[in-house]
Structures are given as structure tokens and as C-alpha cells.
Predict the 3D structure of the following.
Amino acid sequence: MSINIEMPKLSDTMTEGTLLKWRKKVGDSVEVGDVIAEVETDKATMEMEAFDEGVLSEIFVEEGQKVDVGQKLAILTEPGEKKPTKAESKPPAKAKAETPEAEAKKEPAKTAPAEENKPAPKAEEEEKEEQPSSDTSERAKASPLARKIAKELGVDLGNLKGSGPGNRIVRDDVLAAAHGATKAGKAKPEPVTTAKEGAAVPVTAPGAEDKQLPLSGMRKTIAARLLESKTTIPHYYLQAEIDAEPLTRLRKEINAAAESAGRPKVTINDFILKATAVATTRVPLANAAFQGESILQHGRVQLACAVAIEEGLVTPVIRDADKKSLSEISAAIKDLATRARSKKLKPEEYQGGTITVSNLGGYGVEHFFAIINPPQSVIVSVGAIVKKPVVNAAGQIVVGERMMLGLSCDHRVVDGAVGAQFLAELKKLLENPPLMLI
Amino acid sequence: MAVITYREALKQALAEEIERDENVVILGEEVAQYNGAYKVTEGLWKQYGDDRLIDTPISEAGFIGMGIGAAMLGLRPVMELMFWSFAYVTYDQIVNNAGCIRYMSGGLINLPIVIRGPANAGTNVGATHSHTPENMLANMPGLKVVCPATAYDAKGLMKTAIRDNDPVMVMENTLLYGEKWEVPEEEYLIPLGLADVKREGSDITLIAHGRAVITCLKAADLLQAEHDIRAEVIDLRSIRPLDETTILSSVRKTHRALVVEENKPFCGVGAQIASMIQEQAFDDLDAPIGRISSIDAPAIYSPPVEKKQLPDAPRVIAKVLEIC
């Protein structure tokens, strides 16, 4: 009996994956638990293990090819069994070739704006040629209105995910695609005039010096999640300046002691993470998620921390940060960040955060406001520590070390006064850092 | 503006037309001395006498035939059926004679007759007294069918029906007779074949007639309050002639349609409308057209089950949520 090996869903948000490398080749025998291939998801590179044993008899997807979740990748047969017949093993036609020519055909609006009215039917014809057995399930499920607008705007329905009942592609999906955006939440339909305005916006043809960058899985996820956040969450922003002098002083003392004891050093960011965890336990509403009919207030602090990596960013989560000491937090984030940069994080390591810290201080940014990481309600934005003149308690101008903290809050959960209370707690802890250690 | 019952609105229409035109007469079982089985003609016999209100034997085939003959000779009879369910015993008169005479006489004979009475289920009077034949009669070229949902519409449509030169079937509803609406003191007429947008909306069009309109308005309130869905409610008022323009322009605005009726589903009014929409506004649809109707069985006699047979607001809402 032959077993199909399909592209697994390796994370909550994964819809497609790139088969980076086959670790087994046709004819190899495979044991349960053997790594068959490496797969790049929207978040990480992961090893794909075999769940059954047998002989890898046929491979349908080449290395570097991007395929949808659930699509057939290979066939495993029992030792000695014959290869399945040609008809059975015909690769699915929808495998997306990553060659530039194929991309150009699928997204003609970008490269050939003059042919905007043609592409949809063209793509369908090609599919039919590839698959003479007329399988109607391959036809995108779209409403008549969505089809009409897609044709007008030159949007290829084959590349869209439907948000209507039964995943039907509806008007809003086509409009969102035409505007280069993923549909965010259940937005109310825009007036049809917008569609026409959208059509009128000319798509700039790339010049000789321009480069078209294909979207990685991670880039798509970032685009969709942050658009959803900024368009559906009522953000508001608070800011406070922190006297960072006690913090830098304490850090120096701790690190001097650590150095002589041969223990790892702590960073300013470790203190901020610790302070955030402590402040969150004191203002629990900052650790909550809006759920439409109710608000879910989390019992523990799952502290996410934005980490920039080559392709974009991830937010690995320090588990139960409210129960962790400064050095435990420091060790946890160091390990997570290192593995994030080499794309070795497991999905459970960047999922389930309840509040996020984003620190751009290392880049010299003095203050900013990050976009909330849904379904969370609060994100802390940390700026650089800068020396500047400050008026001290005695009324004199002296050199101070200051740091700006920004807070972006979801007003549906965290009202202004609650946000202010949370920020005040953070300020108090960071200006009196020993408080966070007890 | 006066607030009066649906029943009172109908009576005012009949009285005003009796006053206006000496050819208007009312015939039916117990319409005169007993004041009508459902009291729609209450007091009219006392006021206008034997020449204008005539009690008939319990023989629909006989007296509807008599009314058709009177109309052929120039009167404008308003025939009451105690229930539209009894139209089946006079089906031949209505369909073969009333419906065909203008065509078969080469347009020489008009038939200005109104046949009116309640056509609804939901009152525990049993399967043989609960029929809603609007779809069957609208299926006959030559007949017009109206189903007023409010007192205002009942009065305006009844007066127009009496003045119309073709046979008009007016289907009322016993569950609405006692309900009250605002009705102007001054005279007004509502043309046949003109639907009424009872509530404006942007997300889905609910198309209904008769009491289903009231159900849809309730559902639309809840949809807005609980689901942020703005439903537009179209009251067809007249099944035939059918106001396709109003339906289509609404669907072109909302891109979704649900047809709601208390009629049975098979070959119902909703089937006609769904077919018309997909034919003429296919490219405007963002979802399949939905239909809600009475559950497909004879009118159920067990009261708890009977309650479930007719469409109610929760059923409409559930279907809308499926579509939107």
C-alpha cells in the first residue's frame, strides 16, 4: 500500500511551505522518525519527519519549490511494492513553480500592466491544459461578483484565499488583493466606487534598476498580521521618559560581579523584560486579549520579545516570565534570539505571547510606537538611553541618562488610565531597579 | 396620522370605493348581516344596505362564478372568500374564467373583479384552512396577486385593486387583522407592481411579502444590533405584477439576497424571484441567493410544531449569517 506524504501544517499561520532540501532520495528506505526533508515555513526552517516506514518511491516537488499545505510531496511504498501507475502518481497541477517566468504569468498586473484585462482567463486555460481530466474542484471558488471584479482589475483568483462562507472568494478579497493587501478581519464592504478608483491607480511598471522581491512566508505573515492589527485594533499611545541612571548603574554592578564569578552578563533589555513581566502582574488588564464577546485576562505572563532577523522579525516568547528571575529571563531570551536568527525556533516557541516588548534602542532610535501584536493588547516600545541635560531635584541642570518608553494599547481592553497605570509601574520599576528583583 | 388596524384599513378602502363608484358591490359568505367572518365588512351592510352587500350561499364555485358574470356585465364586485383555502373549490372559475376571459374575448371583455380574504397559516385552523395560494394564482397569466403586509398597504392596494380592470386577488392575513399602523386620513392609492423598501440596508436584501415582511423587519433589527449586519427589507406588496426593478437595484447595492415567504418552498414565490435575480444580476452576487419559507408539509395541527412551521426571525437571522 502506498502512502502519500503531504506538506504538513507546521504552524498556526502556515498556508504554504518551501521544500528546501530532500534528505532522502527516490529508492531510499525510510524508518518512522527519519528526517525526510527540510521545509521552510512562514516562521522557521523545520525538519519533516516520516510517520510511516517504507521506500520513498516517487518525489513530486523539487527543492526550492513552494507548495500549499496538504499538497502531495512524495509517495512512500512498502518494500518490494511496485511504483504506482503513472495516472495515480501524476503530480497535482497546482504546484507553484518558482521560476520567474511562471511568476510573471501569474501576476501579470505587476510586470505587464498593459495586459491587465487578460490574465485571469489565461491562467485558467493553462490549468486546463495541464489537467485534461476536467476536475472542477481546481477552479477557484468565487462569487460571480468577485469574478467580475477580478476580471476588471486583473486579479488572478487562483492566488486568493476566500473569506466568504465555505472559503468562497468574495468581492472584498479581490479588492484587498487589488490594493496589494490581505483582507483584515471582517471589514464592512467598501463602496463599489473604491473598486473603480482602485482600478484607475496605474501599476507602476518596474524600471531597469528596480528589483521585484518575492514575498517570503514570513513577509506575508507580517504583512497580514500587522495590517489586521493597525486596521482593526483601536490603538492609542502613551509615552514616558525614564531616568535610566539607576538602571545603568545597577547593571554595571551586577555585570562586574558576574564577570568575576564567571556568570553571563545581563543587558538593559533583560531589565526591561523583567520590569515588563512584573508590571504586568500588577496591572493584569495589560495582559489580556479582546475576544469580541468578552475579554480574556491571562493568568500568566507569556512575554514576547521582538527579534529582528535577516528575513523580517519574530517574537519568541519567554514562558511564564512572571515566575522567572532576571537571570532566567536573560538566559531565555539569549537562547531564543540566537535560535530565531538561525531560524531554528519551534512554532510553540513563538506562539501564545500575551504581551510584547520591542526594543529599537540598539539602533539609536530614541522613541517610537510599535504596532500591537494581535491578539495581545499592549506592546512596549523601548528607545535608546541617551545623555541629555535634565533638571535635578535641586533645580540644577545636570547630565542625565534618559530613556523613552512608548506604550501602544488596544483601547477596547486597556483604557487610557489603565495604560497610564501600567506605564507608571514600568517607570517606577526601571527607575528603582532593585524593586524588580524582590 | 391615525393609527388603525389592518382590518379597519381594509374596511375604509371598501367603504370609500362603495361611496365613490356605484358599481362596487361586496359579495360573500356572511359579509352582510353577520358583518363578515373576520369582521372586515363590519357595519357596511347597515350603512349601505342590500344593494351593495350581498350574503351568498356556502358555494364558492357558485358565487365566484356569479361575481365573474357580474363583472363581465360592468359591475365591480369585491368577492370575499372566508379563507383563500376555499379558492380550490372555485379554482375553475378563477383560473379558466376570470383569468382567461380577456384573452379569449380578444380584449373585448374586461373583468374588474376583486377576490379577497385571508391566506395564511399559523392560527391552528388545520391544513385545509391554512393555504397560501399566491404562487399558484400568480402562475396564471391574466390574474394579479397582491399581499399587503401593513394597514397602510392594505388600504392603498385594496382601493387600487377595486379600480383595476383585471381580476385582482387580494390575500390578507388573519394574524395581521388586529395589528395597527399609521394610515393617512386623506385618500391615497398604491399602484400594483410597486415594491416598497421598508428598511434600508447595505449588506443583504431580504425580499418578502405579507406577514413575512414583518418577520424580516424584526430580524433586521436584531441583525443590526447583534451582528452589525445592515439588512435591507423589500416588501413586494404585489406578487404579480412583480417589481423587478426595485429588487434588482437593491441586490446590485447589497450583493446578497434572501427571499422570505410564508408560502411553501416548492415552486414558491421565492423560487421565481431567485431565478429572476440570478438571471439578471448574476455578476452582482457575492453569495448564493438564500430562500426561507414555510416548512414543506401541510399546515401542521400540533400547536408547538405549528409554531415552528412558519419562518420566524431566528430562522431568518441564521440564514443571513450563513450567507454573509
Notes: Confidence is low (pLDDT under 50) at residues 85-137, 181-201 of chain A. The longest helix of chain A spans residues 245-261. The two ends of chain A are 62 Å apart (CA to CA).
